[in-house]
Amino acid sequence: MNLFIAIDDTDNEESIGTGRLSRMLAVELSRKGLAGNIGITRHQLLVHPDIPYTSHNSCACLEAISKCAAFEEVATVSRTFLIENYHETSNPGLCVIDKSTVPEALKQFGYRAQQEVIDIEEARDLAKRLGVVLWWYGETGQGCVGSLAGVGLRSTGNDGRFIDLAGIRDLKGVMSVGNILQQTAIHKVVSVSGEALSDKEVIDTQDWIRPTLNNNQVVLFVKKNGNFWLQADGKNKKAEKR
């Protein structure tokens, strides 16, 4: 069984970010023999003065293979992990769902969270109506909105940047496309004009490769810069609190 596990609003200005915490959660689930990490994506939500956020208002969603099909145990361990590791003044939220059962309403909710301010109670009512596991903590539990949106956006297969994926954090310096594809779970490297690059083309990784979820594939979009290709959009590098 494949699960989506999304978290949001777990940090403060001085702490590690939600992305880092999601990677720690993946390690904890693996350590307990509950689920294996397929990949974690960062999803950008609406930045608005009416929405409390730490830096860039993004959530993180982990896709995991449940090794023992114990959905309830995965959800319980994830919840306990957040209680033990969230940071003071934050308002964490957690959503856990079977990948095969994500309703269309959650996808639309995710898109809305990128465009409008959504009331906390609306998110909780929607989860209750759909029978989705949604948990929150802290003074307001604001993170329930982002975590619910996170599973919706990840399930579309067309949103999010991978902050954790087999091999991507080991890529350094200048590499061929062929080597990148061999050493990671990236499916293909594509130019911004839509052309898939051959294995012989050369990429300057700049020690920071974060591919995109595109049409249910992991795609690294690149642009030409002199003799090398570079990741097409590196603007979120600063947004990712490691």
Account of the protein in words:
Helices cover 29% and strands 28% of the residues. The protein has two domains: 2-155, 2-Layer Sandwich (Alpha-Beta Plaits); 166-237, no CATH class. The protein is globular. The protein has 242 residues and is of the alpha+beta class. The protein has helices at residues 18-31, 71-85, 104-113, 120-130, 143-155, 177-183; strands at 2-8, 35-44, 58-66, 93-98, 133-136, 161-165, 174-176, 188-191, 202-204, 212-214, 217-225, 228-231. The relative contact order is 0.17. The longest helix has 15 residues, at 71-85. A six-stranded antiparallel β-sheet has the order 5-4-1-3-2-6, with helices on both faces. Strands 8, 10, 11 and 12 form a four-stranded mixed β-sheet that branches. It has a two-stranded antiparallel sheet with strand order 7-9.
Give the structure's gist in a few sentences.
With 242 residues, the protein is of the alpha+beta class. 29% of the residues lie in helices and 28% in strands.
Derived from helix and strand composition plus strand pairing, the structural class reads alpha+beta
The main sheet comes to:
6 strands, antiparallel
Secondary-structure element series: EHEEHEHHEHEEHEEEEE
The helix content, as a percent range, equals 25-40%
**Number of distinct helices:** 6
Widest sheet, order of strands = 5-4-1-3-2-6
Keywords:
single chain, alpha+beta, 6 helices
Could you give the topology of this structure?
Elements (H helix, E strand, L loop, with lengths): L1 E7 L9 H14 L3 E10 L13 E9 L4 H15 L7 E6 L5 H10 L6 H11 L2 E4 L6 H13 L5 E5 L8 E3 H7 L4 E4 L10 E3 L7 E3 L2 E9 L2 E4 L11
Parallel strand pairs: 8-11
Antiparallel strand pairs: 1-3, 1-4, 2-3, 2-6, 4-5, 7-9, 10-11, 11-12
